[in-house]
Protein backbone atom coordinates (compact mmCIF):
# COMPACT_ATOMS: atom_id res chain seq x y z
CA UNK A 1 0.00 0.00 0.00
CA UNK A 2 3.00 2.28 0.41
CA UNK A 3 1.48 4.20 3.32
CA UNK A 4 3.58 5.28 6.31
CA UNK A 5 2.30 6.30 9.70
CA UNK A 6 3.79 7.11 13.09
CA UNK A 7 2.47 4.74 15.73
CA UNK A 8 2.07 5.82 19.33
CA UNK A 9 0.91 3.31 21.89
CA UNK A 10 -2.33 4.44 23.52
CA UNK A 11 -1.98 5.65 27.09
CA UNK A 12 -2.16 2.75 29.53
CA UNK A 13 -1.92 2.97 33.28
CA UNK A 14 1.10 1.22 34.79
CA UNK A 15 -0.63 -1.94 36.03
CA UNK A 16 -2.58 -2.25 32.79
CA UNK A 17 0.60 -2.05 30.70
CA UNK A 18 2.54 -4.49 32.90
CA UNK A 19 -0.27 -7.04 32.59
CA UNK A 20 0.28 -7.54 28.86
CA UNK A 21 3.67 -6.11 27.82
CA UNK A 22 6.10 -8.63 29.29
CA UNK A 23 8.52 -11.29 28.09
CA UNK A 24 6.57 -14.41 29.14
CA UNK A 25 5.16 -16.43 26.27
CA UNK A 26 1.81 -16.93 28.00
CA UNK A 27 0.10 -14.02 29.67
CA UNK A 28 -3.17 -14.51 31.54
CA UNK A 29 -5.19 -11.64 32.97
CA UNK A 30 -8.23 -11.90 35.20
CA UNK A 31 -9.90 -8.53 34.92
CA UNK A 32 -12.99 -6.73 36.06
CA UNK A 33 -15.34 -5.05 33.64
CA UNK A 34 -14.23 -1.61 32.46
CA UNK A 35 -10.68 -2.06 33.80
CA UNK A 36 -9.03 -1.47 30.42
CA UNK A 37 -8.17 -5.06 29.62
CA UNK A 38 -9.33 -4.95 25.99
CA UNK A 39 -7.55 -1.81 24.78
CA UNK A 40 -4.22 -2.93 26.26
CA UNK A 41 -4.41 -6.28 24.46
CA UNK A 42 -5.47 -4.62 21.23
CA UNK A 43 -2.33 -2.50 21.43
CA UNK A 44 -0.18 -5.56 22.17
CA UNK A 45 -1.53 -7.56 19.20
CA UNK A 46 -1.19 -4.60 16.85
CA UNK A 47 2.44 -4.10 17.87
CA UNK A 48 3.10 -7.80 17.31
CA UNK A 49 1.60 -7.53 13.82
CA UNK A 50 3.56 -4.37 13.01
CA UNK A 51 6.75 -6.42 13.34
CA UNK A 52 5.44 -8.99 10.85
CA UNK A 53 5.72 -9.34 7.12
CA UNK A 54 3.95 -10.91 4.17
CA UNK A 55 2.29 -14.21 5.10
CA UNK A 56 2.32 -13.61 8.86
CA UNK A 57 -0.96 -14.13 10.70
CA UNK A 58 -2.12 -12.63 13.99
CA UNK A 59 -5.38 -13.66 15.64
CA UNK A 60 -7.91 -12.04 17.91
CA UNK A 61 -10.36 -14.71 19.09
CA UNK A 62 -13.58 -14.32 21.06
CA UNK A 63 -16.31 -16.79 22.11
CA UNK A 64 -18.96 -15.64 19.62
CA UNK A 65 -19.16 -13.98 16.22
CA UNK A 66 -20.83 -10.89 17.73
CA UNK A 67 -17.97 -10.40 20.21
CA UNK A 68 -15.39 -10.94 17.47
CA UNK A 69 -17.12 -8.36 15.28
CA UNK A 70 -16.95 -5.79 18.10
CA UNK A 71 -13.16 -6.16 18.27
CA UNK A 72 -12.93 -5.93 14.46
CA UNK A 73 -14.83 -2.63 14.48
CA UNK A 74 -12.72 -1.24 17.34
CA UNK A 75 -9.48 -2.02 15.50
CA UNK A 76 -10.80 -0.32 12.37
CA UNK A 77 -11.89 2.75 14.32
CA UNK A 78 -8.52 3.06 16.03
CA UNK A 79 -6.31 2.80 12.92
CA UNK A 80 -5.76 5.39 10.18
CA UNK A 81 -7.80 4.33 7.16
CA UNK A 82 -4.81 4.38 4.81
CA UNK A 83 -2.68 1.82 6.72
CA UNK A 84 -4.93 -1.21 6.33
CA UNK A 85 -7.25 -2.98 3.94
CA UNK A 86 -10.34 -4.54 5.47
CA UNK A 87 -12.22 -7.63 4.34
CA UNK A 88 -15.64 -7.32 5.94
CA UNK A 89 -16.67 -10.84 4.96
CA UNK A 90 -13.65 -12.66 6.38
CA UNK A 91 -13.12 -10.14 9.20
CA UNK A 92 -9.48 -9.49 8.36
CA UNK A 93 -7.27 -6.43 8.31
CA UNK A 94 -4.19 -6.47 6.06
CA UNK A 95 -1.65 -3.96 7.34
CA UNK A 96 0.80 -1.88 5.32
CA UNK A 97 3.53 -4.50 5.91
CA UNK A 98 1.19 -7.19 4.46
CA UNK A 99 0.79 -8.91 7.84
CA UNK A 100 -2.82 -9.95 8.49
CA UNK A 101 -4.99 -9.53 11.56
CA UNK A 102 -7.71 -12.19 11.69
CA UNK A 103 -10.77 -11.97 13.94
CA UNK A 104 -11.86 -15.47 14.88
CA UNK A 105 -14.71 -17.04 16.82
CA UNK A 106 -14.50 -20.03 19.14
CA UNK A 107 -17.94 -21.31 18.19
CA UNK A 108 -16.51 -24.02 15.89
CA UNK A 109 -13.21 -25.23 17.40
CA UNK A 110 -12.42 -27.60 14.50
CA UNK A 111 -12.30 -24.63 12.12
CA UNK A 112 -9.40 -23.11 14.08
CA UNK A 113 -6.88 -25.86 13.36
CA UNK A 114 -4.34 -25.81 10.55
CA UNK A 115 -2.98 -22.26 10.37
CA UNK A 116 0.44 -21.10 11.60
CA UNK A 117 -0.06 -18.04 13.78
CA UNK A 118 2.62 -15.63 14.97
CA UNK A 119 0.70 -14.30 18.02
CA UNK A 120 -2.85 -14.43 19.35
CA UNK A 121 -5.20 -12.97 21.92
CA UNK A 122 -8.11 -14.90 23.42
CA UNK A 123 -10.73 -12.42 24.60
CA UNK A 124 -13.40 -13.32 27.17
CA UNK A 125 -11.37 -16.43 27.90
CA UNK A 126 -13.53 -17.56 30.84
CA UNK A 127 -16.42 -17.90 28.36
CA UNK A 128 -14.28 -19.44 25.60
CA UNK A 129 -14.75 -23.14 24.86
CA UNK A 130 -11.88 -25.25 26.13
CA UNK A 131 -11.74 -27.16 22.83
CA UNK A 132 -11.23 -23.83 21.01
CA UNK A 133 -8.38 -22.94 23.39
CA UNK A 134 -6.71 -26.24 22.53
CA UNK A 135 -7.05 -25.46 18.83
CA UNK A 136 -5.56 -21.97 19.14
CA UNK A 137 -2.68 -23.31 21.20
CA UNK A 138 -1.90 -25.68 18.33
CA UNK A 139 -1.65 -22.80 15.83
CA UNK A 140 1.40 -21.29 17.57
CA UNK A 141 3.30 -24.57 17.93
CA UNK A 142 5.36 -24.15 14.74
CA UNK A 143 6.00 -20.43 15.28
CA UNK A 144 6.41 -20.59 19.07
CA UNK A 145 4.36 -17.44 19.08
CA UNK A 146 3.18 -15.70 22.25
CA UNK A 147 -0.37 -15.87 23.57
CA UNK A 148 -2.37 -13.49 25.73
CA UNK A 149 -5.62 -14.51 27.43
CA UNK A 150 -7.99 -12.07 29.11
CA UNK A 151 -11.37 -12.43 30.74
CA UNK A 152 -13.71 -11.70 33.59
CA UNK A 153 -13.76 -14.13 36.47
CA UNK A 154 -16.63 -16.55 35.95
CA UNK A 155 -16.71 -19.17 38.66
CA UNK A 156 -14.07 -21.83 39.16
CA UNK A 157 -15.23 -24.57 36.81
CA UNK A 158 -13.51 -23.46 33.61
CA UNK A 159 -10.15 -23.97 31.94
CA UNK A 160 -9.25 -20.27 32.17
CA UNK A 161 -9.61 -20.18 35.94
CA UNK A 162 -7.40 -23.28 36.24
CA UNK A 163 -4.81 -21.78 33.87
CA UNK A 164 -4.74 -18.56 35.90
CA UNK A 165 -4.03 -20.53 39.07
CA UNK A 166 -1.12 -22.29 37.35
CA UNK A 167 0.28 -18.97 36.16
CA UNK A 168 -0.22 -17.37 39.57
CA UNK A 169 1.66 -20.27 41.17
CA UNK A 170 4.71 -19.56 39.01
CA UNK A 171 4.44 -21.97 36.07
CA UNK A 172 7.47 -21.46 33.79
CA UNK A 173 7.06 -18.98 30.91
CA UNK A 174 3.69 -17.80 32.23
CA UNK A 175 2.74 -14.48 33.79
CA UNK A 176 -0.41 -13.76 35.77
CA UNK A 177 -2.05 -10.40 36.42
CA UNK A 178 -5.29 -9.15 37.92
CA UNK A 179 -6.98 -5.85 37.01
CA UNK A 180 -9.87 -4.72 39.19
CA UNK A 181 -12.32 -1.86 39.27
CA UNK A 182 -10.25 -0.37 42.09
CA UNK A 183 -7.24 -0.24 39.74
CA UNK A 184 -9.38 1.47 37.11
CA UNK A 185 -10.68 4.00 39.65
CA UNK A 186 -7.15 4.74 40.87
CA UNK A 187 -6.07 5.28 37.25
CA UNK A 188 -8.96 7.66 36.60
CA UNK A 189 -10.69 5.64 33.89
CA UNK A 190 -13.68 4.58 36.01
CA UNK A 191 -15.78 6.59 38.44
CA UNK A 192 -16.11 5.48 42.05
CA UNK A 193 -19.82 6.31 41.89
CA UNK A 194 -20.31 3.82 39.08
CA UNK A 195 -18.64 1.07 41.09
CA UNK A 196 -20.72 1.84 44.17
CA UNK A 197 -23.91 1.90 42.12
CA UNK A 198 -23.03 -1.55 40.76
CA UNK A 199 -22.38 -2.76 44.31
CA UNK A 200 -25.89 -1.68 45.32
CA UNK A 201 -27.63 -3.03 42.23
CA UNK A 202 -25.93 -6.41 41.75
CA UNK A 203 -25.89 -9.56 43.89
CA UNK A 204 -22.69 -9.66 45.94
CA UNK A 205 -21.28 -12.71 44.14
CA UNK A 206 -21.90 -11.13 40.72
CA UNK A 207 -20.40 -7.80 41.82
CA UNK A 208 -17.28 -9.47 43.20
CA UNK A 209 -16.72 -11.35 39.94
CA UNK A 210 -17.44 -8.47 37.56
CA UNK A 211 -15.79 -5.61 39.46
CA UNK A 212 -13.29 -7.15 41.86
CA UNK A 213 -12.22 -10.16 39.72
CA UNK A 214 -12.92 -12.53 42.61
CA UNK A 215 -14.47 -15.89 41.84
CA UNK A 216 -17.77 -16.48 43.58
CA UNK A 217 -17.72 -19.13 46.26
CA UNK A 218 -19.71 -21.76 44.42
CA UNK A 219 -19.47 -24.10 47.42
CA UNK A 220 -17.05 -26.26 45.48
CA UNK A 221 -14.16 -25.48 47.81
CA UNK A 222 -13.74 -27.76 50.85
CA UNK A 223 -11.98 -25.11 52.95
CA UNK A 224 -14.39 -22.21 52.43
CA UNK A 225 -13.11 -19.10 50.70
CA UNK A 226 -14.03 -16.81 53.59
CA UNK A 227 -12.17 -19.08 55.99
CA UNK A 228 -9.11 -19.02 53.73
CA UNK A 229 -9.07 -15.22 53.67
CA UNK A 230 -9.33 -15.06 57.46
CA UNK A 231 -6.22 -17.26 57.73
CA UNK A 232 -4.04 -14.96 55.62
CA UNK A 233 -0.93 -13.88 57.56
CA UNK A 234 2.47 -12.53 56.53
CA UNK A 235 5.28 -15.08 56.54
CA UNK A 236 6.27 -15.53 60.19
CA UNK A 237 9.84 -14.80 61.24
CA UNK A 238 9.74 -17.31 64.10
CA UNK A 239 11.55 -20.65 63.98
CA UNK A 240 9.66 -23.74 62.77
CA UNK A 241 8.60 -26.45 65.20
CA UNK A 242 7.10 -28.72 62.52
CA UNK A 243 7.56 -29.38 58.79
CA UNK A 244 5.37 -30.88 56.11
CA UNK A 245 7.08 -32.12 52.95
CA UNK A 246 5.44 -33.19 49.70
CA UNK A 247 8.01 -34.82 47.43
CA UNK A 248 7.89 -34.22 43.68
CA UNK A 249 6.68 -36.83 41.25
CA UNK A 250 6.85 -36.39 37.46
CA UNK A 251 6.26 -32.68 36.68
CA UNK A 252 5.23 -31.78 40.25
CA UNK A 253 7.15 -29.65 42.73
CA UNK A 254 8.83 -30.58 45.97
CA UNK A 255 7.30 -28.33 48.62
CA UNK A 256 8.50 -27.96 52.21
CA UNK A 257 6.42 -25.87 54.62
CA UNK A 258 7.42 -25.06 58.19
CA UNK A 259 5.03 -23.91 60.92
CA UNK A 260 6.00 -21.95 64.04
CA UNK A 261 4.65 -22.56 67.53
CA UNK A 262 1.54 -20.48 66.76
CA UNK A 263 0.70 -22.52 63.65
CA UNK A 264 1.83 -19.77 61.24
CA UNK A 265 3.78 -20.57 58.07
CA UNK A 266 7.32 -19.42 58.73
CA UNK A 267 9.17 -21.26 55.97
CA UNK A 268 8.01 -22.18 52.48
CA UNK A 269 10.34 -23.66 49.89
CA UNK A 270 9.18 -24.89 46.49
CA UNK A 271 11.48 -26.26 43.81
CA UNK A 272 12.13 -28.81 41.07
CA UNK A 273 15.53 -30.51 41.06
CA UNK A 274 17.23 -33.93 40.86
CA UNK A 275 16.84 -36.16 43.92
CA UNK A 276 20.42 -35.57 45.09
CA UNK A 277 19.84 -31.83 45.28
CA UNK A 278 16.40 -32.30 46.87
CA UNK A 279 17.86 -34.64 49.50
CA UNK A 280 20.65 -32.19 50.43
CA UNK A 281 18.30 -29.24 50.56
CA UNK A 282 15.77 -30.99 52.80
CA UNK A 283 18.45 -32.04 55.29
CA UNK A 284 19.60 -28.41 55.52
CA UNK A 285 16.08 -27.02 55.82
CA UNK A 286 14.71 -29.41 58.42
CA UNK A 287 17.70 -29.88 60.69
CA UNK A 288 16.50 -31.46 63.94
CA UNK A 289 12.88 -30.26 63.65
CA UNK A 290 10.16 -32.95 63.30
CA UNK A 291 8.94 -33.40 59.72
CA UNK A 292 6.08 -35.39 58.22
CA UNK A 293 7.04 -36.53 54.73
CA UNK A 294 5.07 -37.92 51.81
CA UNK A 295 6.51 -41.40 51.26
CA UNK A 296 4.17 -42.47 48.46
CA UNK A 297 5.34 -44.03 45.20
CA UNK A 298 8.35 -42.17 43.85
CA UNK A 299 8.74 -40.48 47.20
CA UNK A 300 9.35 -43.77 49.05
CA UNK A 301 13.08 -44.25 48.31
CA UNK A 302 13.99 -40.60 48.96
CA UNK A 303 12.06 -40.70 52.25
CA UNK A 304 13.90 -43.84 53.37
CA UNK A 305 17.19 -42.11 52.65
CA UNK A 306 16.09 -39.01 54.56
CA UNK A 307 15.03 -41.03 57.58
CA UNK A 308 18.25 -43.06 57.47
CA UNK A 309 20.65 -40.11 57.19
CA UNK A 310 18.57 -37.33 58.74
CA UNK A 311 17.26 -39.16 61.76
CA UNK A 312 14.01 -40.00 63.47
CA UNK A 313 12.62 -36.47 63.04
CA UNK A 314 11.58 -37.56 59.52
CA UNK A 315 8.36 -39.56 59.66
CA UNK A 316 6.54 -40.92 56.62
CA UNK A 317 2.94 -40.52 55.53
CA UNK A 318 1.73 -42.95 52.89
CA UNK A 319 -0.96 -41.43 50.67
CA UNK A 320 -3.91 -43.61 49.79
CA UNK A 321 -7.31 -42.36 48.65
CA UNK A 322 -8.58 -42.68 52.23
CA UNK A 323 -5.53 -41.32 54.06
CA UNK A 324 -5.22 -38.33 51.72
CA UNK A 325 -8.89 -37.57 52.29
CA UNK A 326 -8.42 -37.63 56.07
CA UNK A 327 -5.38 -35.39 55.80
CA UNK A 328 -7.24 -32.77 53.76
CA UNK A 329 -10.21 -32.94 56.12
CA UNK A 330 -7.86 -32.27 59.03
CA UNK A 331 -6.44 -29.25 57.20
CA UNK A 332 -9.96 -28.00 56.49
CA UNK A 333 -10.88 -28.15 60.17
CA UNK A 334 -7.66 -26.35 61.15
CA UNK A 335 -8.38 -23.61 58.60
CA UNK A 336 -11.99 -23.22 59.67
CA UNK A 337 -10.88 -22.92 63.33
CA UNK A 338 -8.08 -20.54 62.30
CA UNK A 339 -5.41 -22.72 63.85
CA UNK A 340 -3.12 -22.14 60.87
CA UNK A 341 -1.99 -19.02 59.03
CA UNK A 342 -0.35 -18.67 55.63
CA UNK A 343 0.71 -15.89 53.21
CA UNK A 344 -0.70 -15.06 49.80
CA UNK A 345 0.96 -16.69 46.81
CA UNK A 346 1.17 -20.32 45.66
CA UNK A 347 -0.25 -21.72 48.92
CA UNK A 348 -3.39 -19.59 48.77
CA UNK A 349 -3.76 -20.09 45.01
CA UNK A 350 -3.79 -23.89 45.39
CA UNK A 351 -6.11 -23.79 48.40
CA UNK A 352 -8.60 -21.60 46.54
CA UNK A 353 -8.62 -23.84 43.48
CA UNK A 354 -9.12 -27.05 45.47
CA UNK A 355 -12.55 -28.56 45.00
CA UNK A 356 -14.74 -31.37 46.16
CA UNK A 357 -16.39 -33.74 43.73
CA UNK A 358 -19.37 -35.99 44.29
CA UNK A 359 -18.98 -39.58 43.18
CA UNK A 360 -21.80 -41.62 41.69
CA UNK A 361 -22.03 -43.51 44.93
CA UNK A 362 -22.71 -40.33 46.89
CA UNK A 363 -19.23 -39.95 48.40
CA UNK A 364 -17.11 -36.80 48.31
CA UNK A 365 -13.53 -36.57 47.05
CA UNK A 366 -11.24 -33.58 47.54
CA UNK A 367 -8.70 -32.77 44.84
CA UNK A 368 -7.04 -30.08 42.76
CA UNK A 369 -8.65 -29.32 39.37
CA UNK A 370 -7.42 -31.49 36.52
CA UNK A 371 -4.05 -30.22 35.26
CA UNK A 372 -3.34 -28.23 38.44
CA UNK A 373 -0.89 -28.84 41.27
CA UNK A 374 -1.73 -29.74 44.87
CA UNK A 375 1.84 -29.83 46.23
CA UNK A 376 1.44 -26.77 48.49
CA UNK A 377 -1.90 -27.99 49.85
CA UNK A 378 -0.54 -31.42 50.74
CA UNK A 379 2.67 -30.01 52.25
CA UNK A 380 0.58 -27.65 54.39
CA UNK A 381 -1.73 -30.50 55.43
CA UNK A 382 1.29 -32.59 56.45
CA UNK A 383 2.77 -29.64 58.32
CA UNK A 384 -0.48 -29.07 60.21
CA UNK A 385 -0.65 -32.75 61.24
CA UNK A 386 2.97 -32.63 62.41
CA UNK A 387 2.36 -29.32 64.23
CA UNK A 388 -0.68 -30.73 66.00
CA UNK A 389 1.48 -33.59 67.26
CA UNK A 390 4.12 -31.14 68.56
CA UNK A 391 1.52 -29.04 70.35
CA UNK A 392 -0.27 -32.21 71.63
CA UNK A 393 -3.55 -31.25 70.00
CA UNK A 394 -3.65 -34.51 68.04
CA UNK A 395 -1.24 -37.38 68.79
CA UNK A 396 0.71 -38.21 65.66
CA UNK A 397 0.46 -41.90 66.50
CA UNK A 398 -3.21 -42.03 65.51
CA UNK A 399 -2.55 -40.70 62.03
CA UNK A 400 -2.39 -43.29 59.21
CA UNK A 401 1.39 -43.11 58.80
CA UNK A 402 1.59 -46.59 57.31
CA UNK A 403 -1.47 -46.21 55.11
CA UNK A 404 -3.67 -48.24 57.44
CA UNK A 405 -6.98 -46.80 58.63
CA UNK A 406 -6.65 -44.55 61.66
CA UNK A 407 -7.88 -46.17 64.90
CA UNK A 408 -10.35 -43.34 65.42
CA UNK A 409 -11.49 -40.21 63.66
CA UNK A 410 -9.69 -37.03 64.63
CA UNK A 411 -12.02 -34.16 65.54
CA UNK A 412 -10.35 -30.84 66.32
CA UNK A 413 -11.95 -28.45 68.77
CA UNK A 414 -11.23 -24.93 69.88
List key phrases describing it.
414 residues; alpha/beta; 14 helices
Structure, described:
- The protein is α/β, with parallel strands linked by helices and 414 residues long.
- It is built from 14 helices and 15 strands.
- It has an eight-stranded mixed β-sheet with strand order 3-4-5-2-6-7-1-8, with helices on both faces.
- Helix 13 (346-353) packs across helix 14.
- It is elongated.
Set down the secondary structure blueprint.
Blueprint: H1 14-20, E1 26-31, H2 37-50, E2 57-62, H3 65-78, E3 84-87, E4 92-95, E5 100-105, E6 119-122, H4 130-139, E7 147-151, H5 159-168, E8 174-179, H6 181-187, H7 192-201, H8 204-212, H9 225-230, E9 242-246, E10 254-259, E11 265-271, H10 275-286, E12 291-294, H11 300-310, E13 314-317, H12 321-336, H13 346-353, E14 355-358, E15 364-367, H14 375-390
Parallel strand pairs: 1-7, 1-8, 2-5, 2-6, 6-7, 9-12, 12-13
Antiparallel strand pairs: 3-4, 4-5, 9-10, 10-11, 14-15
Helix pairs in contact: 5-13, 10-11, 12-14, 13-14
Please summarize what this structure is.
It is built from 14 helices and 15 strands.
The low-pLDDT segments are 358-363, 397-414
The pLDDT mean sits at: 86
What separation lies between the terminal Cα atoms? 75 Å
| Alpha plus pi helix count | 14
N-to-C series of helices and strands: HEHEHEEEEHEHEHHHHEEEHEHEHHEEH
> Percent helix among the residues?
25-40%
Classify the oligomer: single chain
Amino acid sequence: MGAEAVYRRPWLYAKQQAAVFHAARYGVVEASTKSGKTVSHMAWLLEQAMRGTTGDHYWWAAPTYAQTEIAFRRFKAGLPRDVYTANETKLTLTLANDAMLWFKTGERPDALYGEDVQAAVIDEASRFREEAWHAIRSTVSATRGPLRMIGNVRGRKNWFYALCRRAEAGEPDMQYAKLTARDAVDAGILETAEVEDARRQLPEAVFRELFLAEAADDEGNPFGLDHLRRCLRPLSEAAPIAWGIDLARSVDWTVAIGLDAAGQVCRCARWQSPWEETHRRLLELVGEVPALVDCTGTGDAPFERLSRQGGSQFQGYLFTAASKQRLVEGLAVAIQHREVGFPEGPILAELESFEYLYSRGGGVRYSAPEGSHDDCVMALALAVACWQAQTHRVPLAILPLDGAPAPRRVVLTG
